Amino acid sequence: MFDRIVICGVGLIGGSFALALKSAGLVKTVVGIGRRRETLEEAQRLGILDEIATDWSVALKGADLLLLAMPVGQMDTVMAAAAPYLEPQTLVTDAGSTKSDVFEAVYNHLGNSLANVVPAHPIAGAEKSGPAAASASLYQDKRVVLTPLPENDPTSIDRVRAAWAACGAVMSQMSPQDHDRVFAAVSHLPHLLAFGLVHEIQARGNAEQLFGFAASGFRDFTRIAGSHPEMWRDICVANRHALMAELDAYLTELAYLRALLMQGDGKALESLFAEASAARNAWAETYLK
Fold first, then answer.
1. Res 289 pLDDT > 70
2. Strand pairing partners for 68?
3. CA–CA distances in Å: residue 244 to residues 64, 99, 179
4. Could you tell me which of 36, 64, 146, 269 has the fewest CB atoms within 10 Å of its CB?
5. Residue 127 pLDDT exceeds 70
6. For 2-174, CATH number?
7. What pTM value is reported for the model?
8. What CATH number should be reported for the domain whose range is 178-287?
């Protein structure tokens, strides 16, 4: 049970965390803090927040848990602002899609609270954002990856794990370096490609015609290009080294596909498509149940 939790960034991720804990009966008071007053007021109208705070000294007074759910590009600034007001009992976790940069910000600003800071990443995003997109069921049966600090108190890890699990999440754990390499391949690269494809098509002189004939294949491939631009800007920049390595590997694959097309090698194309289809279907049968 948490008497008071504070959420910085009350959109899809932060709002859903609050609603899930409220639904589970595990929090008495949810306090919101953030850049935009109108967003906080909307979250309060929707029943996500019980209180709105305008400064950290008020927000963190008596807080049991702080969730940092804003774009990762703001982590350094927000941690620096919150650090002087963290109380000894306050747990800190985050929802950032990159972890090496979050670790750097933690060590830069939260050195007095390292026992209680347990970074995390909920794998439960959507292309919609803002408080209105929040749902108490967002994390149900979705993965949340913990990337604990060496200095963490085991009890703090357990309590943060329990909080996410109470939201319905399936818990995993890995190092920040492994995390960033894995998600560069299976999350950050797909988003980069989807944004790039839509951007390239909308810049063409016949873009209206192309969009007019685009159907389910285009819809499914580009769905994630409707995601929050600021959030994905920050993710791509923060994880750019791992992401560039994945992009280079994909460019090599594209060059191979181009060569097969140039040669008209239907047999090789079909073989490649068959391998990819089998791998994709096996993944869906195992992980999308």
1. no
2. 8, 94
3. 39, 17, 15
4. 36
5. no
6. 3.40.50.720
7. 0.87
8. 1.10.3660.10
